[in-house]
Write a structure and sequence with these properties.
The protein is built from 14 helices and 16 strands. It is an alpha/beta fold. The protein folds into two domains: 172 residues, Aspartate Aminotransferase, domain 1; 249 residues, 3-Layer(aba) Sandwich (Aspartate Aminotransferase, domain 2), CATH 3.40.640. The mean pLDDT is 97. The structure holds pyridoxal-5'-phosphate.
Length: 426
């Protein structure tokens, strides 16, 4: 047994599944997870010192690669001044100003501690502002683990959903309506059924939690139009796409305006941070200005703000990060398609900028049922083969692959070579 396997045995005695977040347990690929000791640039090193080219990137935050000196120094500097005050600090103002500057359609920012918290609060705000209870989400989009968002399809498309987790009351998710991603007809039908009851539509503008699934031409615009027509708010959950597709996130990338935007992952630079943002009018419905309550003891934590501010400022000052990592994403997607073709493995690679995922299916993947045509056994074999060759991918098919600014041409070529060998063996 190696050190990761030994640690995993210990971990399972004192932590559910041995982990603090389920996907890390590697159950979808039937292996013991690697315990990571440290990471630098595009590499991470496990407890045995084995090195991997990392395409998980902490599930997105590490867009500059691991252990970036600019962020590390900002954090070290902040630590010297104290870890937490529970009082306003200068950096909170600076990061909010930066976000308002860079992201279209936001005038005010509320910082929280995770993406889950950001989305949960944005939904409360949308309900508070509209005085309506129902929300509409899409199958395969993940918005964190708050109760009202843990739903699977109802028995009829027009009924509320079923809880997808034990411990979630049916009474809570009965207000959550669901439609298929990219299916305007489904959304129209729900609005027609509940014209004055839907508080908000929440969407990942690029879905990245069923693997990467791109919005079809006109889909996001169509949601905007329906929300306007029926007086609902449109929430873009940009926890992954924010500061990833480009500085302005999906709103800038696709030219569609959201009423509320949620962030997480990248804006914390690797520290636990989330945020929800919108127009002044909407955001001033939040306490202490308005009747929608939301608070947080550690929200806007000075060390977390230092990391987020350093990374966001660096991104603003280095636009080549986006052109470079976007080109790398495209190159990798094409290399994987070519390798799959060479070895006759049916693979569909979806990619936008530095986000991509290969699905082991011959079909186009435009929604959750499409993603579910993927051969999961094949994904597990591919994952294991890549890991053995020193490439760390997401340990589940329905996740994204993240390319960072730190990935070099050589590392990409090594990844493509590994994929070629693994596809040959499938
Ligand atoms: C990761 C994620 C969340 C949840 O963020 P946490 O920080 O894990 O709570 C919400 N929405 C999207 C789109 C995500 O990818």
């Amino acid at each position: 047994m190696d050190k990761s396997e030994l640690l995993f045995e210990e971990a399972q005695k004192v932590m559910p599944g041995g982990v603090n977040s389920p996907v890390r347990a590697f159950r979808a690929v039937n292996m013991a997870p690697r315990f990571i000791a440290r990471a630098d640039g595009a590499y991470e090193y496990d407890e045995d010192g084995k090195k991997y080219i990392d395409y998980v990137c902490s599930w997105g935050p590490m867009i500059l690669g691991h252990n970036h000196p600019v962020i590390r120094e900002a954090v070290e500097k902040a630590v010297k001044d104290g870890l937490s005050f529970g009082a306003p600090t200068r950096r909170e103002v600076e990061i909010a100003e930066l976000m308002v500057d860079l992201v279209p359609n936001i005038q005010e920012v509320r910082m929280v501690n995770s993406g889950t918290e950001a989305v949960m609060s944005a939904i409360r705000l949308a309900r508070g502002v509209t005085g309506r209870d129902k929300i509409l989400k899409f199958h395969g989009c993940y918005h964190g683990h708050s109760d009202c968002l843990l739903v699977s399809a109802g028995s009829s498309a027009l009924a509320g959903g079923h809880p997808s987790s034990a411990g979630v009351p049916v009474d809570i998710v009965k207000h959550t309506l669901t439609a298929q991603y990219n299916d305007m007809g489904g959304v129209e039908a729900l609005f027609a059924e509940y014209p004055d009851q839907i508080a908000c539509v929440i969407v990942e503008p690029v879905a990245a939690n069923m693997g990467v699934v791109l919005p079809k031409e006109g889909f996001l615009q169509g949601l905007r139009k329906l929300c306007d027509q029926y007086g609902a708010l449109l929430i873009f959950d940009e926890v992954i796409t924010g500061f990833r597709l480009c500085l302005g996130g999906a709103q800038a990338y696709y030219g569609v305006k959201a009423d509320l935007t949620t962030f997480g992952k990248i804006i914390g630079g690797g520290m636990p941070v989330g945020a929800y943002c919108g127009s002044r009018e909407v955001m001033e419905q939040v306490a202490p200005c308005g009747p929608v309550y939301q608070a947080g003891t550690l929200s806007g934590n000075p060390v977390a703000m230092a990391a987020g501010l350093a990374q966001s400022t660096y991104l603003r000052d280095h636009p080549e990060v986006y052109t470079d990592s976007g080109e790398k994403g495209k190159w990798l997607a094409e290399a994987m398609r070519a390798a799959a073709k060479r070895h006759n493995v049916p693979v569909t690679v979806n990619q936008v900028e530095s986000l991509l995922s290969p699905f082991f299916t011959g079909q186009a993947v435009e929604d959750l049922p499409g993603a579910q045509t993927s051969d999961l056994k094949r994904y597990a074999a591919y994952f294991a083969g890549m890991l053995q060759r020193g490439v760390a991918l997401a340990p589940a098919q329905f996740e994204a692959m993240f390319v960072s600014a730190a990935h070099t041409r050589e590392q990409l070529e090594a990844t493509a070579q590994a994929a070629d060998e693994v596809f040959a063996s499938l």
